[in-house]
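Suppose a colleague, Dr. K., hands you the sequence of a protein chain of 331 amino acids and asks what its three-dimensional shape might be. Before reaching for any lab equipment, you can write down a predicted structure in token form. Begin with the sequence itself:
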Amino acid sequence: MDHRRRTFMTFSALALAGLSAQWAALEPDRLTAAMHGRHVDGELVDWMEDTSAKLVALPTEQRQHTAKLMDAQLETVTDLLEQGRYSEPVGRRLHLLAASLAGTCGWHRFDQGRHYAAGKLWNAALTNAHAARDRDLGAGVLSDFAYQSIWLAQPDAAVEPLSQALVHTRHPTARSLLHLRRARAHAALGVAADCHRDLAAAETALLTDSPDPAPAWCQWMSTADLAVDSGQCMLDLGRTDEAHARIDEGMSLLPRSRDKTRGIFLTYEARSLLHAREVEQAVTVANRSLDLATRIGAERCVTLVRELAPAFKPYRRVDGVAGLMDRLKSG
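The predicted structure, expressed as tokens, is then:
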């Protein structure tokens, strides 16, 4: 039996056992009644919030197998909003939950390379964040749209949404991420002064203490992200040596738990190594990135590695390049 299949079967048994135990604690007809226009109570919303949080918190490699569970959660919450009866506080919680689930489901589509579907889900997330009167969450969704634009080589479309998002959020961690993404957009556009200004603002914000926890959509933001994305900015601006140093720094700081981010960072590192003409090392790093992206089921990350192929082509006679090129073609 395939190792990934065994892992999924083990996880499924554990997850379903946990979900079943929690579900058994609810009155059996509570969800059915709520779905048919009857009162949605706080205990049901408690359970859905708890279940959704556990699904979102799973390691990346396991989350690829829970997409249908997440979709079902989102559909259920949407049905409750449309068909159930609830108080204003419960309605706000349902809208916040719908926004969070739609955002997460959008990221899953994005990782699969299904960009239109991701955009539709993020639009739903933005609508629900607005209905919940949570401007901070809405800023996070705008940031996701902007990141997608940068990823699809449309950085000019990212600058305005990020500028709008910065108006609507005050937490320093959130502002750091927004400035960092806007720096990426400016770098891709070749606007060095604006890029450096945003990088400085991102660093200042990240080092600013706050009595409040960071919003859920940016809690993962760290000095590792700042370092690697700064390196990618330097690469786009043609400052190869500085880019390589920053990416190396970020890779050393990244926690093991963030496999998807590690895969993206490895690809950035391979690109910076190619710019520095350290081809054999670039081959090693690109192979590691491809292995990781394939294992976690992130087609977007696999595509990112494949986009390195033209840069490797002039070095086909270098040891390892032909094998990597064959892998990139066969995938």
